[in-house]
Hints:
Layout: H1 3-19, H2 30-49, E1 58-63, E2 66-73, H3 76-87, E3 94-101
Parallel strand pairs: 2-3
Antiparallel strand pairs: 1-2
Amino acid sequence: MNxxxxxxxxxxxxxxxxxxxxxTRTQQSAGEYASDAAITAKVKAAxxxxxxxxxxxxxxxxxxxxxxxxxxxxxxAEAARAVEVARGVEGVQSVRNDLRVKSxxxxx
Length: 108
């Protein structure tokens, strides 16, 4: 192999490796993932601190600064409060509310 072939192969190899670190529409870069993980941790901590939200039953996931809340709450007011708490966390761009209100057992 000559020097030019090795140089071209090196550039292609570097571009391939670098491409693995960039974000796509459905995948995050390493930096985005770390930032989203920090946001998730902050939202969970804020929910635990909120006395009017049962944080145990609320799941938090973050993708590109959009927080998704899912799980079960006792009332619509609690769901609204969880969304409010999540929106107040630094770095959160938007909140998707997939919380469900627990149904009460049938009375006899």
